Amino acid sequence: MSRVVVVGAGLGGLAAAARLAAAGHDVTVVEQSDAIGGKLGTFRRDGFTFDTGPSLLTMPYVLEDLFAATGDPLASVLPLQPLETACRYRFPDGTVLDMPGDAGAIGPALDTALGPGRGAQWSTFLDRAERIWDATHEPFLESPITLRDMARLSRRLTDVRDVAPWQTLRGLGASYLHDPRLRQLLDRYATYTGSDPRRAPAALATVPYVEQAHGSWHVPGGLHRIAETVRDRAVERGATVRLSTEVVEVVTAAGRACGVRLADGELLAADVVVAGVDAAQLYGRLVPPDPRAWRTAARLDRSRSLSGFVLLLATDALLYEHRHHQVLFTDDYDAEFDGVLGPRGRRRPVEAPTVYVSSPGDPAMAPDGAEGLFVLVNAAPHDPRGGVDWDEPGLADEYAEHVLDTMARRGFDVRPHLRWREVRTPADLGRATLTGGGAIYGSSSNGPRSAFLRPANRSPVPGLFLVGGSAHPGGGLPLVMLSAEIVSGLVGPS
């Protein structure tokens, strides 16, 4: 039986702990905060419950695979609820599109909302996205990424032509989508990886494909229940979870990871260390000094993904016609991407941001007759040295008012019904999750080589492995769980 220490009780760390414990390893999870979940967080006040991170589950089969591999099936412990309407989109020209959760209904909905032929445009684009998915998901998402994968793909001419590594997501979309509203819809999917569609690879076309092919899902009671249920599965399989336990060093002996040192000086010996922390923090602060680690940390710092500015709004009414998710688009998406991902010295709070609103309509998440709204706008990472200093006095409250004003101008005025609000800036997210600048996805997916620049699951230090959104294959609930599956396979059975 191998001793495994998992650093971080985010979903990646918990999923790795469940898989490794089920495989017979002696697993201890250590988490610096007093709560599990990491970015899959929750906030409760006055009977309101908010998911403070992801508010939508896609690719549910990945979660189902995790539970099938570790014991009883998912359905026995956690219900999933499909969404009839995946999202309501409000475009700058006033058009409203209710995107169905049922893939078969999407084409007719697009034709009705945007005009005849729009469904065919989107369908043709998704056919291309499906071919990209078929060519890439096994070597690029479900396996440890290596240069051999690129070589293997390059030998299959058809796959290379489909994947189009020389094209950006926006460039690929322009080839199929002639309605500017469809192109704006596609641009939004780049933000799922914290990226700019003008620089993100065409392979990100798979993001809308998998969302629509496998549906959009809610967890009654909030998505944080996923973290709780995975934690419970890990504990059932023998893992130990220690909260309020900060790791200050990954200890090595003879060049191999042999445990971790805690803030109080305790040494936890291990045969394997699995790091579910931000990769830039791992390589910049926790591993022994090494030029390779420093270079990796510096590169990750330069390529941070976008962050988010969040409002948690408690209202005293059920507002408007209910839709679980709504997106209020800006009329200048390029200005938004320039503001959050442009050159460091030019980043700024976005003047006219796209606004994302989640209002689950879940009776377990708000008092009767009331509603809790999670509001998110894309934001530059916290960077006092040369970007946006989100701790600047007064900035958070001033920008919160600006976001509420923006919502009102776009037909979604919540202020007359507002009981209270909580504001979360990128600086707050960075402190809560020990993530550089509060970058939600670690590094962005900008550039054709981005998949190969994301930190690998097997680190240069023998015995040290990486899971979570800042490591391969990337951020978002499904990919984080896939990283745990990859690491479990690399570690092997006890």
Note down, in words, how this protein is organized.
The protein is 37% helix and 19% strand. It is an alpha/beta fold and 494 residues long. The chain has 3 domains: 3-40 and 61-79 and 222-302 and 446-491, FAD/NAD(P)-binding domain (3-Layer(bba) Sandwich), CATH 3.50.50; 119-214, no CATH class; 307-437, Guanine Nucleotide Dissociation Inhibitor, domain 2. Strands 7-6-15-16-17-14-18 form a 7-stranded mixed beta sheet. Strand 11 and strand 12 (267-269) form a beta hairpin. The chain starts with a strand and ends with a helix. Pathway: Carotenoid biosynthesis. Keywords: Carotenoid biosynthesis, Oxidoreductase. InterPro entries: Amino_oxidase, Carotenoid/retinoid_OxRdtase, FAD/NAD-bd_sf. Belongs to the carotenoid/retinoid oxidoreductase family.
CATH architecture of the largest domain: 3-Layer(bba) Sandwich
Distance between the termini: 5 Å
| Number of contiguous helices | 17
CATH topology label of the largest domain: FAD/NAD(P)-binding domain
The backbone outline, from C-alpha atoms, is globular
Q: What is the C-level CATH assignment of the largest domain?
A: Alpha Beta
Overall pLDDT level: 91
Percent of residues in beta strands?
15-25%
Largest sheet entry: 7 strands, mixed
InterPro entries: Amino_oxidase, Carotenoid/retinoid_OxRdtase, FAD/NAD-bd_sf
Pathway: Carotenoid biosynthesis
Keywords: Carotenoid biosynthesis, Oxidoreductase
GO molecular function, one term: oxidoreductase activity
